[in-house]
Amino acid sequence: MSNGRAVGVELGIEDHSLISSPVFHPPSFSPCRRKGLADHPTTALNAMTTAKPVATRPSVPTPSALTLILTNLKDSLVYLTVLPLFFLVYSTPTFATFYALLVQTFSRQTIFLQITFLLTFASYWIHCLLLSLPDLHHLPQWITKRKIQPAKTPSLEWYAKAAKSVLFNQIVVSAAWGAVFYKLAGWRGMQCDAPLPSVAIMVRDFLVFVVVEEIGFYYGHRLLHHSAIYKYVHKMHHEFTAPVAIAAIYCHPVEHILSNLLPLFAGPLLMRSHLVTFWLWSVIAQFNAVNSHCGYRIPFLPSPLQHDYHHQVFNANFGVLGWLDRMHGTQGGFDAWECEYREREKRAVEGRKD
Ligand SMILES: [Zn+2]
Ligand SMILES: [Zn+2]
């Protein structure tokens, strides 16, 4: 990795082995460090291109609950339109007939393992390939203007590096995990046979999944940031200080199991959900993970700002939705930075130089 620093600077990837001393510790993050979280060795480049110390910013009022709800609804418009459409198709006799045919054609093991793999693998790569267009081909312009960290340009070389890790996690780690999941699903009584669950049951299960995922991901992520563990496992994922879509599961295999797979599978196992419910959940959760690493705030898609900020400053925003970050006060200076970012994005979209 002799040229890692040069390429890393281009993309905003840190080669931690080449960093001698940390230069940036936002004052507001000191509570995280007091709780035993690892310090983030940050380059001078990051000090210039990522969040500034909160103390230097104008104070920003904490957004009200109503503002947060309205912002989240706007950012979730894709789910609020696509999901009802999906449920409409799902409720038709044609869909039920198609699923009955699937169950008659394939064994339970094939449906649980191979079809689940194909579904998640294809949806991940289609989404990543689409989101690679602004990075690698600067298209379309209405998205490129919304680059969250415009000073950091990803290269094809780092895309290739990320792809190798992602493929290993998807094919080797997830295949091994799939065998464990299959046993657990049998033990918990998860079904894949017809009839399909009702929309009401799916929505009920989803509400539990969201809570379980938030708890599992937040505390697992906090654990991965502990100074005794960080450099062995989670440091790899944080090589991307300016994340790109494909880097959503660019991580150590231990992290992939602890932080990505366990919180994703725990809810469906707990609720003994139908496999179809799990399929929809895993595609949505994966879409969310890829989107939160894409590096662009695309209108009406879930905002990636929270997690992008985590990659910038390292010791803030550990959760998915941010509920537990607000509860534990681990947002760092996110609200102030988000306010600044939205102003900057507005100027970029309108083509203003002021
Ligand atoms: Zn990440
Ligand atoms: Zn992290």
Protein architecture, described:
The chain has helices spanning 4-11, 30-34, 44-49, 65-75, 77-90, 93-105, 108-137, 141-144, 156-188, 199-224, 253-271, 275-292, 305-313, 323-328, 334-350. With 354 residues, it is mostly helical. The protein has one domain (78-135, 143-350). Helix 7 (108-137) runs antiparallel to helix 9 (156-188), helix 7 packs parallel to helix 12 (275-292) and helix 10 packs antiparallel against helix 11 (253-271). The two termini are 40 Å apart. Mean pLDDT is 84; it is low at 1-57. One zinc ion (ZN) is lined by residues 221, 225, 234, 238, 310. One of its GO terms (molecular function) is oxidoreductase activity.
Poorly predicted parts: 1-57
Please, how many domains?
1
SSE arrangement, N to C: HHHHHHHHHHHHHHH
Bound molecules: zinc ion
Q: How much is the radius of gyration in Å?
A: 21 Å
What attributes does this structure have?
354 residues, mainly alpha, 15 helices, binds zinc ion, Fatty_acid_hydroxylase, Fatty acid hydroxylase domain-containing protein, membrane, oxidoreductase activity, iron ion binding
Give the topology:
Elements: H1 4-11, H2 30-34, H3 44-49, H4 65-75, H5 77-90, H6 93-105, H7 108-137, H8 141-144, H9 156-188, H10 199-224, H11 253-271, H12 275-292, H13 305-313, H14 323-328, H15 334-350
Helix pairs in contact: 7-9, 7-12, 9-11, 10-11
The structure holds zinc ion (ZN) (2 copies).
The site of one zinc ion has 5 residues, from loops.
